[in-house]
Structures are given as C-alpha cells and as structure tokens.
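Changelog-adjacent note: as of this version, every example in the card shows the full chain rather than a window. The one below runs 464 residues end to end.
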Amino acid sequence: MMSTNKAWRTPLMLITAAILPLLVVVPFVYLTLTTDMSRMAARQIDEFKPIVMDAHKSELRNAVQVAQNVIKHVRNTRGDSADAKRDALALLRTMDAGDDFYLFVYDLNGVSLMHPRLPSWEGTSKWEFQDKNGKFLIQELIQAARRGGDYVDYVFLRPETGKLEPKLGYAEMVPDWNWMIGTGLYLDQLSRTNTLIKATTDSAVSGMTERMLMVALFSVLVVSATGFGFNLVEQRRANAKLRAMAQQVVLSQETERARVARELHDGVSQWLASVKFMLESALVHSERNSPDTTTLLRNGLQQMRDAMREVRRISHGLRPTLLDDLPLSSALEQTAREFSERSGVAVVTQIPQPTQRAPDAIATAVFRLTQEALGNIERHAGAKRVQITLDFPEHSTALHLEIADDGSGFDVDALLRLPRAGLGLTNMRERIEMLGGLFGVTSGSGGTTIVVHFPSHALKGALS
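Full-length structure tokens:
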C-alpha cells in the first residue's frame, strides 16, 4: 500500500506542479488582454471621432453652400425684390433632409426669417435667446457667419423628441441681403458609435474569456491524462494559442478601422461625383439661360440629400439601403440598370434569381465592390460594354461574381505600387479577403475583368 501510494503521489505532484503555472498564467494573460483591448477601444474611439466630426462639418458646410447657390440663382433671375426674397425663403424651407437636418435664416438683428421646425419663431427676435449653458445662440451664429463661415457648438431642443441635445451648427452670411443662413446636426450619432465600439469590445472580451476557459480546461485534462512529460508539450501549445489569440484581437481591431475607412472612401465619393456632375451641368445650362437649369438644380439637391444620408449611414455602420428591401441579385440588376442609364454604357447581366438570400456581410461586400467597379469604369475605362455575371447556386455551394468591360485597361502591378492611385483596388481586395473570399483582377488593352469567389466555408462562416 505504501508503494502504491508513493507511485501515485509522484505523478500527482508532477501534474500539480504542471497545472499550477497554467492556473497562474491564464488569469494574467486574461487581465493583460482585456486591459489592452480596452485601451485599444478607447484609442479607436479617439481616432474615429475626428473622422466623424470632419464628415459632419463637411456635410453642414456643403448644405449651406447649396443654399447659397439657390439664393444666388434667385437673385440672378429675380433681383433683390421682396418677392424674390420671399421665394428664396420658400425654396430653402423645402431643403429638408429629415432626421432634424434643415436650414434656418435670421437677419442681423436676430429676427427669425425662416425656421421649418419652429415656425412660431418666424418674425420674432431671438437676439437674447440662450441655450441651457447660457450661450447667446443667435448672436454666436451671426458672429460665426461674419467670420466668413464657422461652426458653433450648442445645446438645442430636438423637436422630434422634445429633449435638449448637443448640436453642431454652421452659419454663413448672405451679405447683399444681410441674412445669416445656417444649419445644424445633432451629435447623438457620435455617442451611438462610441457605444457600438464599446459593446463590440465587451463582446470580444466575453468570447475570448470563454475560449480561454475552454483552452485551460482542455490543457488540465490532457495534463492529468498523460503526466508531466506530455504536459510540457501541451503547455507550449496552449501558450502558442494564447499568443495567436492576442495577435488576432489586434488584427480584428485594425481590420474594423480599415473597414470604416473603406466605407468612407467607397460610398460617399460616388455620390459626391454625381453631385459635382449635376451642378456643373446646371452651371452650363444657367449660363445659356436654359429652362433645364431648375430641373438640374433640383436633381443636384436630391443627389446632395442622398450623399448626406450616405454619410449618416456610414457613421451608423449600416449596410446598403437597397439590400434592406431587395436580394443581392435584384440590387445588382437595379444598380446595373441605373449605371447604364446614367453613363450610356451598355450593360449585359447574367444574374439568376436564387431562392435564398446571400449572407448580409457578403451581399454588402459584393454590392459595394460592384458599385466601385462601375464607378471606375465610368471615370477611367472608356468602355462601351460591361458584362456582370453572378453565380449563386441554390444550396450555397459557392458565390461567384465577374465584372468585365471592353475598356482601355491598365497595368495592375504598376497601379498597386502607387499608394493613392491603387487605394480603390486595394480596398476591393481587402473587403473580399477579410470575409474569406478570393479576389482577382486582370487587365490589358482588351479590357478589364474582376473576379470574386466566395467558397462554401466562407458563406457558412458569414452566417455564423
């Protein structure tokens, strides 16, 4: 009995000696990783905030610039009469993008001339109006306008909710009419984005904790079954797994930041290019006194509203709106049709109507890639014909997309060596590969072909 007890005692001591370091290392690594992830989340929020704020400021400034163009057009056609001013205010009142995004106009004495959300203010002086922090709001907006156009932070009543919320305003002068024209945007989007980032980090920490506990339990069982010698091998493997997990956490954070940058580049730029085209066309027709000027301006304003909605969509991390109502196949068909009508390039589609929807993440990636590819063809390729082929079998064995044009082509390797010029192509590749897909592009004098392929395991992974 003594010999048996001794025979058991030595392995148990060795196993205990092997397990104890694991029990010490796991909590230490867990605390280290959670601390680092929290710091990275805070750093990500700090880095993301200027991007969102710059987008908000650009949105506000562009809205006021469009309004200035409307006033300029009215003055050029109607002069400076009282009727012309009244018509200008009526037009500005219609420039309402929803979500509490609207224009307001005051004279330099603080009298409200137009306020879509607070019509009771119109005709009354708000020179002494203060927000809850004691800021003389109208006076500050007029001073900002006199500086040539500037921003003002303040707290204002949100008509839709009846609550006071932080807001960013922008104002400019209409000097010939002694008007101050401005607009504002509530900043709740930024706080919601911060909440989303924190929630994502907390979810990642929770998942990491579960995986670490599973790894620790598995290691203990292996050590108990095989003894001290085999325990040393498993201990090294566990440490390698923990290091890989730490690297994956860092990679995931960087990937998310890259995704936001891609969304800002791929989505908003397409809308702004269209708005630029509309406004340039309106300018040409205006110089010719063409009756189509008003129609073009209305179209340009509509495109600007779409661009503003796109910025808000990106800040909330939403997917393309077409995919909310349509499957990927129908969304691609509509995009191809709109592209052909706009550019005059013939588009041939081979897109079956599957019985099931593609995973949301993959559908969004394919849709965005198609949008950017068509935009590049319109701007650079000089193509006369484009063919879009989508193959998505009923049983989700794979998803395959090809976009081919007969344009002038380009040197793929040379383009990728230029950081700025190759940004769009790099974004396409990263967007697909981060979801487990394959991306390829070939180009020459006969045209360009982009190929995207998602194997079955990528489709299943996107659903999990």
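Structural remarks: The chain has eleven helices and ten strands.
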